[in-house]
Structures are given as C-alpha cells and as structure tokens.
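Render Aminotransferase class I/classII large domain-containing protein in 3D.
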Amino acid sequence: MEVKWRFQPSCSLAAAGDLNVRAVVKRLIENVDKNSGKPMINLGHGDPSGFSCFRTAETAEGALVSAVRSAKYNGYPVRGGTPSARSAIAEYLSKDLPYKLSPDDVYVTSGCNQAIEILLSVLALPGANILLPRACFPFYETRAAFSKLEVRHFNLVAERGWEVDLDNVEALADENTVAMVVINPGNPCGNVSTYQHLNKVVPYAILYH
C-alpha cells in the first residue's frame, strides 16, 4: 500500500511571503519600454556592492583578511556576537547617548532579518498582537504570521511626511499589544522622522511594549 506524505505549504505563510517589494519592482521593470532610449536607475536595488561606484572601505577589507589569516575564527562564534565585536559596537553607539552601553546590551545578528526573527519569536505570547505601520517592511508581517502573532496596522500620514498616526495607534492598542514597530528611516516610504515627532511616538511605544 502506497502511503503519501501530507506535505503542503501553509496558506497563511504563503500569502505573507507574497508581500515582497522586490517582486513588485521586478514586475514594474519588466514592463518598462526597453526601446525608449531613456536610461533607467533601479532604486529598488538595496545592495551597494552591485554598483561599481561603491567600494568596501579598505579598513574593513583589511580587518576581514586579518581575521581569516589569524585562524582564530574558523568555528561558530558565541551566540549574540564575539565579546570584542559587542564591546566595539557598545562603545561606538554610546557616543550619541546620554548613558554608556555595555557589551551585554548588544546582540549581534546575521542581518536585519535574523534580528526581526529573534525579536518576534521572543514576543510571540499566546493571544499577543503587534502594531505594524502601513506600509511596512514586509518581513515583519511574514515572521509575525509564522510566530502566530496577530498583526494590527496603524496608519502613516502621507501629508505629514509619513508620520505615525498616533490617534490610530491608540485606537488599535490594548492590553495584549506586545510591541509597536517604528522604522526610521522608513522602509518602503523612504521618510526620515523628525526628532520632535519621535519624541511624541516614544510614550506610546513604552506604554504598549
């Protein structure tokens, strides 16, 4: 008797995975008239290494080469980053803060996606919800679906430079809200919030976190 595995993708995760800015940009580029003779700059390309005018700093290249040649880093690093890396990051970030960070305040991840993955996994309590901006970097929604976090979208006001609609945030948040995501500089809107506006947002983030 032939037994078939019941393997099939999750519909909710598949739908969340379709929220991909690059896929939309790709479709737009495919529909551009190639015979127009007009040069085109792809502003959806987020990796500077794809352009010859951007080079990695020689200091960074030298540090990488030295690390490889030292043979000290041929295994998996400690969780959250090596002590030397966390110390350097803490010292650098402390320059712009009224207080001093310690290496224990720093957690190093393999890019932004892993940071989002870890944070949302930690916050995924039963019945919890998270507030995401509309529009938002799509991986937040994908990962929230994976972690079974309810997503509630608050509005950004285009007429005010995509500022957070604080009245909308207040209407959406409740005792089960575990986090509010504020992306600055904004992705995908490209806005940079003013210091004054962020000062108004912070009390909400503290209250509902």
